[in-house]
Amino acid sequence: MDLSIIIVNYETYDLTKQTIESVINHDQPFEYDIYLVDNGSKDGSIDKLKKRFLKESEDGLIKFIINIENRGFAFANNLALQEIKSKYILLLNSDTVVVNNCLEDSLNYMNYHKDVGALGCKVVLPDSTLDKACRRSFPDFNVSFYRMTGLSRLFPKSERFGRYNLTYLNEDETYEVDCIVGAFMLVRSQTIQEVGFLDESFFMYGEDIDWCYRIKAANWKIIYYSDAKIIHYKGASNSKKQNKRLTYEFYRAMYLFYNKHYKDGYPWITTAATYLGIWGICSLKMFKNYITR
């Protein structure tokens, strides 16, 4: 198999259906299959998806993996990764639409660039603006400080201050980056064999950055490839009831990533300032959400 696509569904029938159809309704000139992992949905969405894609399932194009509980994005993807033997693996969010020849062009780039371990395409929001998360630098202390203090927003074209989302670079060019977003993450299977699966300590944020960090540490390149594109209906799959949990997990991911990759390289005072920044902003965000409700 050339490509295996992993899509995680959590109570998003319409969105997941749209994502799958954007793949299978296009004539793909390569062999592929889709692993649809349900993360403990309680709304009947997985039963409807099984019914909608019954033929594709019987033909072996779509394989279903069912979790009885939601144990996070990394855990769900890892279940599929354990079964896949394809040359390339694509993590694809259930709230995306694959545009035109995105998959074919991305695979061709990887085939011609053997030193690339992971590739991310151009990710746009429904209003056609760039989803800034699709090309990033690693969130070391300086990059995170510029982001948290607002300097990155004040000076987006600055090579120094704009590193968080690489806003000083042309979004219509292709280049090497530190990390790409898990909404579309095309990874070489050889690379996964070297660096391992996603870290399940991360529930739904940060696992993509952590994976990219390990991929680069293993001397693979990570590419932002602007010639391929998807549409990301960002946030559409997140229930308003989950706002508190989502906010907490976002900042917990920062804490986990810092502890795993940076803590030993900084003095204690820097670590203390980092913890204060992470949990202080987290508390303010959660309080603001509470007041708003």
TrEMBL record:
Residues 4-136 form the Glycosyltransferase 2-like domain. SUPFAM superfamilies: Nucleotide-diphospho-sugar transferases. It comes from Methanobacterium spitsbergense. The chain crosses the membrane at residues 266-287. PANTHER family: RHAMNOSYLTRANSFERASE WBBL (PTHR43179:SF7). Keywords: Membrane, Transmembrane, Transmembrane helix. It comes from the Archaea. This is Glycosyltransferase family 2 protein. InterPro entries: Glyco_trans_2-like, Nucleotide-diphossugar_trans.
